[in-house]
Design brief:
Blueprint lengths: L3 H6 L3 H26 L3 H24 L4 H23 L1
Helix pairs in contact: 2-3, 2-4
């Protein structure tokens, strides 16, 4: 088992930022995907689902190699969901 020092040594802040951004997009797209499915918009639902899975694979591939990438991943997920829910709430007012 690798030590935390080896994970810290291989931790790339630029890659962490890319993972964060990818998961902001994933969660925003997931909200969009859900709305598209419930409104029977097949093309937009299918396209957003495709992009979601490609970005998910990017995140998984990276955090399998270094579990420290789970932190920017989780934070990006939170931010993406928060932004989309706030956006939808404002639209409904």
């Amino acid at each position: 088992m690798e030590s935390i020092s080896s994970h810290l040594a291989s931790f790339d802040p630029v890659l962490a930022l890319a993972i964060f951004a990818a998961y902001v997009i994933i969660d925003a797209l997931y909200a969009y995907y859900t709305l598209s499915v419930t409104q029977y918009h097949a093309l937009s639902a299918a396209t957003s689902g495709l992009i979601i899975h490609l970005l998910l694979a990017f995140g998984v591939i990276n955090y399998i190699g270094n579990y420290l990438y789970v932190f920017p991943l989780a934070l990006g997920s939170w931010v993406g969901t928060y932004i989309m829910v706030r956006r939808e709430k404002r639209k409904s007012l």
